Amino acid sequence: MPNVMIRHNEGKMTLYVAKRDQEDEIASIEFNSDDSWGGTIELTDGTKYYVDPLDAPPKLPITLRAKRG
Amino acid sequence: MSVMSREETEALINEVLEVYPAKAKKDRAKHLTVNDHEVEQSKKCITSNKKSLPGVMTIRGCAYAGSKGVVWGPIKDMIHISHGPVGCGQYSRNGRRNYYIGTTGINAFVTMNFTSDFQEKDIVFGGDKKLAKLLEEVETLFPLNKGVSIQSECPIGLIGDDIEAVAKKATATTGKTVVPVRCEGFRGVSQSLGHHIANDAVRDWALDKRDDDNSFQTTPYDVAIIGDYNIGGDAWSSRILLEEMGLRVVAQWSGDGTIAEMELTPKVKLNLVHCYRSMNYISRHMEEKYGIPWVEYNFFGPTKTDESLRKIASFFDESIQKKAEEVIAKYKAEYNAVIEKFKPRLEGKKVMLYIGGLRPRHVIGAYEDLGMEVVGTGYEFAHNDDYDRTIKEMGNATLIYDDVTGYEFEEFVKKVKPDLIGSGVKEKYIFQKMGIPFRQMHSWDYSGPYHGYDGFAIFARDMDMTLNNPCWKKLQAPWKAEAAEEAAVAASA
């Protein structure tokens, strides 16, 4: 259950895992609409994380608890 | 263009690793790599931020060094107590040349050493009482201090002292910020964790002090310099450029910085991050909590400085962008003259670097501006995100080494034969005795500043002064030099 920070970096949405010093671009988010946001997040290198879906898209950057997806 | 081909460099790494026992060899092999621009992520080619191998020479520091020496130490109007035995503070005192303005011992305390000087009885009975007394004494002797930070040394964590409680009590009586920092030296694998702990301490104990206070007059052009430690005056030569382009520098973290500046940083519009490694944590925190964007910049060498000034200006309106161009144009003649003077003397020379923090990648641009080539670089304590950034900066098929051991570094130098080495003082005399020009790049070899256009002139002069120093020709005894010459003549005849 790492803490991940999702933020915009030069126009791209990235996911940062502080513990692993990993900051990678997000390739896809399972739910990405006005009424739900989150679910499985896939990074460009293939790593997957799961965050509990939120009711609305959050204001970035945001720190969330994520599970290995 | 690289001096060695990929195969040659790989062969060199294998050759150097040959002497290790199998297990050590396997471990060290992960830390050495040949740069490949096609690799997107450094984790595929290099391992970093891992415990050093027992039995090899490493030049890493400890968490206390990262917190007290790097992040907290340069804050000039606070007293930084080295809490624990006397040595840690005394032997690292005044070594980093973080310049500051102020009267030492009156309203600035950077170069002084404050310690609780632990004795056996403090280990046995706990040192909290001693610390409380120390805080009182400090208040009496140095009433103009604006706060205290308690930098733990190893024993504090081992005996389980409650420095947080002492700090809270002291804050209640004096009303000044007292920050307990849990940066015991045994934490983590290098000073890098100390930076993180120090950043967290800033976040938890200092940063939000003025959140409800809106008396500070802000402007749309407020910025903070984050991660510039003012070594030899670096932050000052950066600051003038930013001010010339119309920005207002509210805070300097932490070279020549104050606690008040730190507390005001959440009110700025943009955080300028120079040392990513040591200050990215707090920048990310401020981005999330206060919505302050941050941008990395590089003020080494004119090419990178131009780029960075434009990049910083792009966050502001056109008036700033216009002024940034004016600043670049203004200094152009100046730095072109520097390049014109020194490039012929330095062109084509090879450099090997092994430093910490940001320099192994940031100074590459400055060397390239002088026509020099960096053929090998490495970090003491970087993480993979640093190497991600380094891969792009370095030439293809050049050497990259993480937490290089004394033996490996020497062997690399013997084979690659660089014309100049930039590393720390622990390496300096070894390589100078080997007859290789050397610059101590942690504190600029008692020179500086190297940031900005003004700094570049000093940088170029220093490199020339070191490389073209006549002493390097005198290393061989005259009779031996003659013999070699005679042999050469005989061979050619």
Automatic annotation (TrEMBL), chain A:
One record GO biological process: nitrogen fixation
Highest taxon of the lineage: Bacteria
NCBIfam families assigned to the protein according to its UniProt record, in alphabetical order: nifT_nitrog
Protein name as catalogued: NifT protein
The organism of origin for this protein: Marinobacterium lacunae
From TrEMBL, chain B:
Cofactor(s) the record lists: [7Fe-Mo-9S-C-homocitryl] cluster; [8Fe-7S] cluster
SUPFAM superfamilies referenced in this protein's UniProt entry, alphabetically: Helical backbone' metal receptor
Transmembrane segments: none
Catalytic function, reaction form: N2 + 8 reduced [2Fe-2S]-[ferredoxin] + 16 ATP + 16 H2O = H2 + 8 oxidized [2Fe-2S]-[ferredoxin] + 2 NH4(+) + 16 ADP + 16 phosphate + 6 H(+)
Pfam families: Oxidored_nitro
UniProt entry keywords in alphabetical sequence: ATP-binding, Iron, Iron-sulfur, Metal-binding, Molybdenum, Nitrogen fixation, Nucleotide-binding, Oxidoreductase
InterPro entries: Nase/OxRdtase_comp1 (IPR000510), Nase_comp1_asu (IPR010143), Nase_comp1_CS (IPR000318), Nase_Mo-Fe_asu (IPR005972)
EC number: 1.18.6.1
Domain Nitrogenase/oxidoreductase component: 62-467
GO molecular function: ATP binding; iron-sulfur cluster binding; metal ion binding; nitrogenase activity
Family matches, as PROSITE patterns: NITROGENASE_1_1, NITROGENASE_1_2
Any one cellular-component term (Gene Ontology): molybdenum-iron nitrogenase complex
Enzyme class: oxidoreductase
Keyword presence, Oxidoreductase: yes
Cross-referenced Gene3D superfamilies: Nitrogenase molybdenum iron protein domain
Highest taxon, organism lineage: Bacteria
Family of this protein: Belongs to the NifD/NifK/NifE/NifN family.
Functional description taken from the UniProt entry: This molybdenum-iron protein is part of the nitrogenase complex that catalyzes the key enzymatic reactions in nitrogen fixation.
Subunit structure: Tetramer of two alpha and two beta chains. Forms complex with the iron protein (nitrogenase component 2).
Name this protein carries in UniProt: Nitrogenase protein alpha chain
